[in-house]
Amino acid sequence: MHHKTKTALVILTATVMLAVILSRPPVWTRLSEAVEKVTQPGKPDLLPVTRIVFPVRNATISTIFLDPKYFDGTYGAALKGQWHTGWDLNWGTGDQDLGRPVYCVGGGVVVFAGQGAGQSWGNIVVVKHNIGGKTRWTRYAHLQDIQCKVGQTLQAGQQLGTIGKGYHNKWVAHLHFDIFQEKPLTWSHWPGGNKTAVLQYYIDPQQFFTTLKAVQP
Ligand SMILES: [Zn+2]
């Protein structure tokens, strides 16, 4: 083989290999795709949601969607300048709610159950639902215990975990709950000060529960 031909062959091979590597989705995308395979439309786990309950029984809503007090630093300097993506339940009641049940708000399938990324979330569960023909994901965070598994079908009001204090007991016991209207890049998604991202990915739980006539679990 001529030297020139050999060089060309090496360059071609390297180019092809690089193209293959670059075209592969990152690990987290592949993992979430694996999860998606068990939750394809038409499967019983995505039957339309017919009943909606609140995630905690008789809870106090401590922090609301896009809460201005969260943003302005009232709830702690570390949170200042960040937009809250959903509800915090029972934050203002100390740790007396620690270990209380957290319920799945509607029928669906668990797509994530485990430790969230970073040093805040602690345990997270995400459930995928078919609500009025649209896909929605509910997220339950800072859990003390997780009582469900990925791929498991849950009914409205079925316990999926308990109220906890987040990563290394960082917070006063409370449930952080939010709803994705669009699939985020990761299940630990947190938009921080990016309000546009909050409005793109999340739904106001107040609007969600009112529209769907939620009842106590
Ligand atoms: Zn929160």
UniProtKB/TrEMBL annotation:
Please name the SUPFAM superfamilies in this protein's record.
Duplicated hybrid motif (SSF51261)
What domain of life does the native source organism fall in? Bacteria
Q: What molecular function terms (GO) are annotated for this protein?
A: metalloendopeptidase activity
* InterPro entries the UniProt entry points to: Cell_wall_metabolism_enzyme (IPR050570), Dup_hybrid_motif (IPR011055), M23ase_b-sheet_dom (IPR016047)
Q: Which residues form the M23ase beta-sheet core domain?
A: 84-181
Instruction: List the CDD domains hit by this protein, alphabetically.
Output: M23_peptidase
What PANTHER family is this protein classified in?
MUREIN HYDROLASE ACTIVATOR ENVC, PEPTIDASE-RELATED
Q: In its UniProt entry, what is this protein called?
A: M23ase beta-sheet core domain-containing protein
Q: Which organism is it from?
A: Deinococcus cellulosilyticus (strain DSM 18568 / NBRC 106333 / KACC 11606 / 5516J-15)
